[in-house]
Amino acid sequence: MRHIPVDPPPFFHRGPAPAARLAFFALVSVALLFTDTRYRYLESVRHAVGAVLYPVQRVLELPADAVLYVGSYLASNRALVVENRELKDRLLAQAPAVQSYQNLEQENARLRALIEVGARFAGAATPAEVLYSGRDPFTQKLFVDKGESSGVQAGQAVIDEAGVVGQVTRVFPSMAEVTLVTDKDQAVPVKIERSGLRSVMYGSGGGRLPELRFLSPNAEVRAGDKLVTSGIDGTYPAGLAVAQVVSVERDPGQIFARVLCSPLAGVDRSAEILILGAAAASAPPRPEEAPESDAPRRGRGKRRP
Amino acid sequence: MPQLSTFAPARPEEILLPVQPWFVLLSLLVGLLLNLVPAGGLTQTLRPDFLALVLLYWCIREPRMISVGIAWCLGLLMDVGDATVFGQHALAYAVLAYAAEYLRRRVLRFPLWQQAAQVAILLLFCSALVLVVRVVGGAPMPRWTYVVGPLVGALLWPIVTVLLQAPQRPRRSKNRAVVP
What are the pLDDT tens digits along chain B (180 aa)? Predict the structure, then answer.
């Protein structure tokens, strides 16, 4: 006797099964992830939606702003007097440096012209205020309130009064995203002030100190050294304070020394920052190469450079 | 009868009014907005994923209305708002909706605080999925405080249940004899 299977007729139209839907959406998600990570086709989408979401985000910031405003309004008179005195002392301490700065600039320009080296261009700087820090726990980013409309471009360096904070990575119409130097694999070319040794400081992610990579174990570096930008890459102008070396581990079994540094700027605590203009540190133009002939080759000759 | 009973969820034998679609939409929107509010420091560490929590509630209670597709779209919105990798939250929310639909009968059998424990596991799984996607894509491992958010979300589960169920509890009719 054959058993004839009988399925009940579909009484409820429920569409595809949840597992089928999950499989479909999971595949689409993986495709989106791949496209976004690899090819970055979705940047324009993100830009457009960022423009739309901007007023919503500003509205959502109002409660936090209101709380801060009330807090600062109610700050005690005593605290303000103390802060005022501290700022005046700091200003006074910096006065000699500021007054001799003009002289030093001119002397530097003269000496550079003398040895025919390109001038250090101190370009425009845009002050900006930090709106909020990024919500993503995997990256270290800040969002500032100047965007395309203020002339900010992606790639510009960002500093605060103590040192380098990071680099502008994405620009929206009225907002910009700044990646901090502590973000994973964010690189800043630095120079050890004391010895002149050049290296690159890489961020290591949240909660960890950035490190100098690829230094040989006998490199001339010790704890307490100050690191400044070397200005080689064309992004960060030379001479800005970056970090201070915290520890140096020279393990004879390792190829490289492990040097940990602590950033000098308040990277995730900054409130007011300065965005340095695009031409602040321009690299020299690439040398022109001889144009290659477009005529078709006969035979199997190699292309001559 | 004093209104103390409104602070407890409906007992299983109570008959609930049908859910209003606009209320579901509103609650999801509020969840999304709460997620997008900028917060720093300790608030950021402790903040749960409100949208995942509300989505989980509706997937468990109303699986016909909110299912994998809508969860996926909400995840995309969340990705765009957060400026992270496109598709990470979409994938996580889609899997969360599927898990909720699969486990919904089981979760609804337990009393409220034990439901919260199961919700904790679901939310942790959702966050773990996001973590895996990002780490495979090259991000560093976050600090241990990453798990605090989902756990706080699970602690909020009873409040979310009571709040979102409130419109469905039948109101007392005005014509009955009222005990002052």
Answer: 444 455 677 777 778 888 899 999 999 999 998 888 877 677 888 889 999 999 999 999 998 889 899 999 999 888 877 767 888 999 999 999 999 999 998 998 888 889 999 999 999 999 999 999 988 888 888 888 899 999 999 999 999 999 999 888 887 666 666 565
A-chain CB neighbours of B82 within 8 Å are 135-136
Which residue range(s) make up the domain with A80? 75-119
Task: Note if the pTM is more than 0.90.
Answer: no
Helix orientation angle between B88-109 and B68-82, rounded to the nearest 10 degrees:
130
Please check whether residue A163 is in contact with residue A243, taking contact to mean a CB–CB distance below 8 angstroms. Answer: yes
E strand residue ranges, chain A: 125-133, 141-144, 157-160, 163-171, 176-180, 187-192, 198-202, 211-215, 226-229, 241-249, 257-263, 272-276
Tally C-beta pairs within 8 A across A and B: 121
Distance from the B132 Cα atom to the nearest Cα atom in chain A, whole angstroms:
11
ipTM for the assembly: 0.82
Residues A53 and A79 in one domain: no
- In CATH terms, the fold of domain B17-168 is Arp2/3 complex 21 kDa subunit ARPC3 (1.10.1760)
**What is chain A's alpha carbon radius of gyration, rounded to the nearest angstrom?**
27
Contact of A266 with chain B, judged by CB distance below 8 Å, is answered with: no
- Sort out which chain B residues have CB atoms less than 8 A from A269's CB and list them: none
**Interface residues of chain B, partner chain A, Cβ below 8 Å:** 33, 36-40, 44, 64, 67-69, 72, 75, 80-88, 90-91, 94-95, 97-98, 101-102, 133-134, 137-143, 146
